[in-house]
Write a structure and sequence with these properties.
463 residues, mainly alpha, two-stranded antiparallel ribbon, two-stranded parallel ribbon, 19 helices, 6 strands, binds arginine
């Protein structure tokens, strides 16, 4: 580790260099170098504003901006040497600026502190990632819409308690996830609009005595407005927490879908198959095809939830305004953003790649007396029974069929009438899975007519 004399960074107050271990615990450059682009963007805007307000002269501002652009190019080309002795991205950039343009570099930090600087950088970074994640989520939803269109009348079992409950369609199941990811999308959008205010110019915590224009830098950086309270501006990380919470919830949705893919791809279910592109083999069992990608997406929710819990715990009980504890915010957010993007991309690939097996799904949908509710509904409709009485009578018929080891539709009319005297042949009609699905045409139900209109709606929303 290259060690600078401390006074080089902290000025006159310090005469001794830090312990190695102090530097190790204090430095954030290994991870916050990821903020370099946002850091330079913020500095460019700040320097230009200082010149416009007459706080620094135009020549210095020009030199500063030119130097900053050169630094950005150096970092991008991999030619920049980051130093732990300089702690973080802000000090690394400023120190390099001094090497390039000399003492004028010292004017950049007028009317600014690293406290408002890092809060600004970090908001810009999170905002960018929200935009990227949102685009990826839309791609994932489009992959679901394609599956839904294929499966508009392909019947599969709907489950409760993972027990066969009532028949639904593949399209209906896919569209359930479109709704979930749609809410994730809007959650990220909400977080974005709340976080889109500029902390820049709050300085260390109290504002500044220089005649700065925070509205101009806010506008430059694409923020809606400057944050109204300088203490709040430098000390809250609720925007990062909201991002982590939205990522966690989205991760939980992905995890549930991943779990379904794992179950459906097992030979026992056989509802779907992944191509070789999304399967792995076993090093010992030659016959195996494993859904590793789905399992990993299922597991990533653990990391996402962990990051949220970690930052909530860091922030809890911190007094205003800035405390160094808050430096611990970045790795959690970086990891969550990377993890979520990877998980969404992997899920999108799997959804696009998988091949459903309509015969297996239909056969499973018919098993387990899944249309018993349809028969009970028929008794209510045609014989004016109360639903409770119809439920009891149908239960007796299911028991009778179970004892005879046959389907409900295979019971003789005489057997059925022994339980429900008014029952006629027509009742058998409602026992097919096709009829069951077709009949559930209430708003939001599984009937193709309903699901088709939801697909249309989402197609136009995602355009
Ligand atoms: N690296 C620091 C962080 O991420 C930057 C802000 C430092 N501010 C300070 N007062 N020491 O939080």
């Amino acid at each position: 580790m290259k060690k600078n004399s401390s006074s080089e960074i902290w000025g006159g107050r310090f005469s001794e260099a830090p312990e190695d271990i102090m530097q190790a615990v204090n430095a954030s450059i290994d991870f916050d170098k990821r903020l370099y682009r946002e850091d330079i963007e913020g500095s460019l805007s700040h320097a230009a504003m200082l010149a416009r307000q007459g706080v620094i002269d135009d020549g210095d501002a020009e030199a500063i901006c030119e130097g900053l652009r050169q630094i950005a190019a150096e970092i991008e080309s991999g030619g920049f040497e980051f130093s732990s002795a300089l702690e973080d991205i802000h000090m690394n950039v400023e120190a390099r600026l001094r090497e390039i343009i000399g003492p004028a570099a010292g004017k950049l930090h007028t009317a600014r502190s690293r406290n408002d600087q890092v809060a600004t950088d970090f908001r810009l970074w999170v905002r960018n990632r929200i935009d990227r994640i949102s685009a990826k989520l839309e791609g994932l939803m489009l992959a679901h819409l394609d599956q839904a269109e294929w499966g508009i009348d392909r019947i599969m079992p709907g489950f409760t308690h993972l027990q066969n409950a009532q028949p639904v369609t593949w399209a209906h199941h896919m569209m359930a996830y479109v709704e979930m990811f749609g809410r994730d999308l809007s959650r990220f959008g909400d977080a974005r609009s709340r976080m889109n205010e500029s902390p820049l110019g709050a300085a260390a915590l109290a504002g500044t005595s220089f005649p700065i224009d925070r509205h101009v830098t806010a506008r430059d950086l694409g923020f809606d407005k400057p944050m109204a309270n300088s203490l709040d501006a430098v000390s809250d990380r609720d925007f990062a927490l909201e991002f982590l919470a939205a990522a966690s919830i989205c991760g939980v949705h992905l995890s549930r879908l991943a779990e379904e893919l794992v179950i459906w791809s097992s030979p026992q279910f056989g509802f779907i198959a992944f191509s070789d592109k999304f399967s792995t083999g076993s090093s010992i069992m030659p016959q195996k095809r494993n859904p590793d990608a789905a399992e990993l997406v299922r597991a990533k929710a653990g990391r996402l939830n962990g990051s949220l819990a970690a930052l909530l715990t860091v922030m809890k009980g911190l007094p205003l305004a800035y405390s160094k504890d808050m430096q611990e915010d970045k790795e959690q957010v970086f990891d969550s953003a990377d993890t979520l993007e990877l998980a969404i991309d992997a899920m999108r690939g799997m959804i696009a790649d998988l091949t459903p097996n309509p015969e297996r799904m239909r056969a499973a949908a018919a098993a387990g007396y899944s249309t018993a509710t349809d028969l009970a509904d028929w008794l209510v409709r045609e014989l004016s029974m109360s639903f409770r009485n119809a439920h009891r009578a149908t239960g007796q018929l299911v028991k009778m069929a179970e004892d005879a080891n046959v389907e409900l539709a295979d019971l003789s009319l005489a057997d059925m009438q022994s339980v429900c005297p008014g029952l006629v042949e027509d009742a058998r009609r409602v026992l097919t899975v096709e009829n069951s699905v077709e009949s559930r045409a209430s708003y939001g139900g599984t009937a193709p007519v309903q699901v088709r209109s939801q697909i249309k709606l989402w197609r136009s929303k995602l355009k």
